[in-house]
Amino acid sequence: MSDQFRIEKDSLGEVPVPAEAYYGAQTQRAINNFHISGLRPWRAFIWSIATIKRAAAEVNRDLGLLDAPRAEAIAKAAQEVIDGQWDDQFRVDPFQAGAGTSHNMNANEVIANRAIELLGGKRGDAKLVSSNDHVNMAQSTNDVIPTAIRLGVLWRLAEMLGALDQLAEALEAKAREFDPIVKSGRTHLQDAVPVRLGQEFGAYATAMRRDREKIALAADGLRRLGIGGTATGTALNAHPEYHRRMITKLSELTGLKLYESPDLFESMQAHSDAVFFSGAVRTLAQDLIRIANDFRLLSSGPSTGLDEIRLPAVQPGSSIMPGKVNPVLAEMLDMAMFHVLGNDLTVTLAAQAGQLELNVMMPIIAHDLFEMMQIVIGSVTAFTEYCVVGLKANPEKATGWLAKNAILVTALNPLIGYSKGAEIAKAAMARNIAIREVALEKIQAGELVNKDTGKAVTIEEIDAILGDIRSLTEGGIHGGGGGG
Questions:
Q1: pLDDT digit string (tens) for 261-291?
Q2: Is the pLDDT reported for residue 481 higher than 80?
Q3: Contact between residue 197 and residue 399 where contact means Cβ atoms under 8 Å apart
Q4: CATH code: domain of residue 58
Q5: Of the listed 11, 188, 303, 419, which one is catalytic?
Q6: Which of 170, 212, 413, 433 has the fewest CB atoms below 10 angstroms from its CB?
Q7: What is the span of the domain harbouring residue 218?
Q8: Contact 276, 369 (CB under 8 A)
Q9: Is 318 one of the catalytic residues?
Q10: Is 478 one of the catalytic residues?
Q11: What is 23-37 written as a DSSP string?
Q12: Does residue 306 sit in the same domain as residue 385?
């Protein structure tokens, strides 16, 4: 065998492994078997599983099951993985053998071989440190991977919530900035009663705040850990105190608020907590798609569209049309959230595909949960920094559209009634004139009366309602309906 390889063994026999690799036989078999996507594990998955390995080494040492030198070497090697020192050694495609045995063994082998070095040995010397007997002590893929999924999500949770906070704050700032601008509201993409541009943006901010709350709430279920259930939930080969001590140790190592699972079988069988979290992210995604599409619509044109807001020009928009600038950040956000919706569907389908004591689809649940978090963090941060913060209102265009909006007649309903208001609106739109002009004509013709008293309406009464358009955005009844 070339000096470029060493021979390692697993239960199926010998396997040549690159000499410089810290992974071993089972990882190499997985690399050979699964040339699928070219994807690698997300950092959250590497971090979380290494954290479990360090915690297990220290707990098993404290329980008298693992001698101190081995435990300390394993813990130190695991910490190096936690710190990102050996990310390049995690090579297994996310589309791999069921349950995540390949990822678990990848971690076991990397940590074992690095621990062997720390103890003065050579990689592959399983008598010094065994990936199965020592690094994986009191563990099974079946309880390690569900725990790693939960820890990995919680590890990035604050970063994700922080990105949403920044977006909400940026939208709130725009809501304050745009509050003086009164514009035409639109329902069914047709003219509606007036709103303030600040009200539109305030609603976007509120949606983000509420979606953030949903995600934080959904993440709480992931704090229940089933580590210690081992292969099926019975805790075979684990010390009776192992589960409790592992939760305490993992809490200490991560700084996360974690809880013991009251049912180790359920924690292994069911991935409903992951689905619930994924569903909360899905809710965020659909809101972000809606907001991004509103940005695209409000900024459309500029000459032939709404042009009520101007998005920052971050790059040329066309290879053929000079001067064209596109809403690229909003387009990016749409595409990113479409991908997140696909991730969510995959998590849902994978979670419902478990049978009896185990769900073997965990590798793709893990990968897609971590992927959707990365995509949300990255896309929301970029959208906030390069689009929302720098966008400007175009008050002239916004108020210009409002001046042509015949639906302003709605404010006259309490005075003249719905039917007469509809007549005025239709006439104004047909003739492309202001509703005040039509109302004046009807007043002069004696055709406009108070719907409740039957008395003739005056132009002063019309102007009292339409003279302060902003007041129409603040609710209430205008026009003195109800007699008098």
A1: 999 999 999 999 999 999 999 999 999 999 9
A2: no
A3: no
A4: 1.10.275.10
A5: 188
A6: 433
A7: 143-397
A8: no
A9: yes
A10: no
A11: --HHHHHHHHH--SS
A12: yes
